[in-house]
Amino acid sequence: MHNLYNNFKSLTTNTKSKQISFRIGINKEIKYPIDNIAFVMNDSEFNITWYPQEKHWKQNPSIKSLWSGTIIDFEKKGKMFGKNAEHLDNENLKKEITYQILRSNSFRKLIFDNNGFYINKEDIEYIEIWYEWNFNNGNQQQINKKWVNNIYNEKFRPSQKTKYDNLFLSGAHTKTTINIWSMEGAIESGKITANYILDKYNKPNVEYYKHNDPFFIKLIQYIDNILYMLYLPNIINLLIIVILIFILYKYLINAKHLKKIKKILRMVKIGKY
Questions:
Q1: Distance between CA atoms of 260 and 267, rounded to whole angstroms?
Q2: Alpha-carbon distance 116 to 48, whole Å?
Q3: Which of 182, 195, 208, 215 has its CA 20 to 30 A from that of 90?
Q4: Which residues contact 4 (CB under 8 A, 6 or more apart)?
Q5: How far apart are CA 129 and CA 22, in angstroms?
Q6: What residues contact 197, with CB distance under 8 A and at least 6 apart?
Q7: d(Cα 113, Cα 95) in Å, to the nearest integer?
């Protein structure tokens, strides 16, 4: 158990989830094309995602629609203030979120097509940044840091089965074939754990999808790992560099031949041939 504890401590070292949550309350009742819809705003610098939550909201006369959202991209700068989410205080962050959502043409069209009106700044009755995020010393900082996987903690990710007969682990932090911190990874881990328990009692297993890479992908990954250890660019960038060098080489060779041809033509013209 002590080893397992130390493994978990190593797992959470040098990790930080930089996804900032927020809530927006609208004073208009909004209809959507389907129930339980979610929006991924690919025209947002912060790659904002959000989904309606009014079904889970205590009724309030001034708030007819409630959105729960997340800032996915923590590094890209927004256009309103020219700063990324990490370097905006909470008030300016709320303004930037509002600006990015309201200027999305695809979102505005979807709202209008299903409701006959647009959402404007005046319709936003309420907006908050999730209470765990506070702006201190010029940066957004999280009170309770969340775990995400990266190159530093990958080797510490545990499997679902432990050496204890009655202890199993589940969650996106455990090893899965999807191999990335995500809802899909968490679901896969739960099914793997379920199968260990079902095996223990000789019960039929549950089915789950295994994300197995084809051979050529594994080969590229293997080559990339070697390039990384040699401090070289990845295989795609390396191929681009090689192609550019080849094109430059061909151009120089052709230019050299062209120069020779021009020289011969000049000599013919003055009667040397």
A1: 11
A2: 24
A3: 182
A4: 158, 162
A5: 4
A6: 168
A7: 26
| pLDDT tens profile 194-230 | 999 999 999 999 998 888 888 888 899 899 999 988 9
Say how far apart CA 97 and CA 23 lie, in whole Å: 10
- Amino acid present at 144: N
Burial class (CB in 10 A: 0-12, 13-18, 19+), 108: middle
Burial class (CB in 10 A: 0-12, 13-18, 19+), 107: buried
**What are the pLDDT digits (tens) for 90-123?**
999 999 999 999 999 888 999 999 999 999 999 9
Q: How far is CA 263 from CA 134, 250, 254, 271, 273, in A?
A: 73, 20, 14, 13, 12
The Cα 196–Cα 179 span in angstroms is 19
Owner of token pair 């050529």: 216
> Are 123 and 63 in contact, with CB atoms under 8 Å apart?
no
The predicted model scores a pTM of 0.65
Structure tokens, 184: 């899909």
CA distance 129 to 141: 12
> How far apart are the C-alpha atoms of 17 and 51, rounded to whole Å?
20
Q: Crossing angle, helix 215-229 and helix 235-269, to 10 degrees?
A: 80
12 — pLDDT class (breaks 50, 70, 90): confident
| Alpha helices by DSSP H, the chain | 2-12, 90-102, 105-115, 183-200, 215-229, 235-269
Is the predicted pLDDT of residue 68 greater than 80, yes or no? yes
Q: Does the CA dihedral 237-243-246-250 come out positive or negative?
A: negative
The pLDDT score that the predictor gives to residue 273 is: 47
